[in-house]
């Protein structure tokens, strides 16, 4: 049977358990296009960020 060689420190144990507290990513509805996007990210459909045109809009067929 496998036996741990050393006691796991509180820091290592806490780092491993910190992943349990992760939340799913948040999404908000874009005011202009109505698409879901991440907060503080460019809307990929319209190509706008904070009212300014950053990328070319996507043409969906």
Q: What do you see in this structure?
A:
- With 61 residues, this protein is an alpha+beta fold.
- The protein has a domain at 23-55.
- 13% of the residues lie in helices and 13% in strands.
- It has one helix spanning 10-17; strands at residues 28-29, 36-37, 48-49, 52-53.
- The strands form 2 sheets. A two-stranded antiparallel ribbon has the order 1-2. A two-stranded antiparallel sheet has the order 3-4.
- A hairpin with a 2-residue loop joins strand 3 and strand 4 (52-53).
- The longest helix has 8 residues, at 10-17.
- The protein is rod-shaped, with a radius of gyration of 22 Å.
- The relative contact order is 0.12.
- The mean pLDDT is 90.
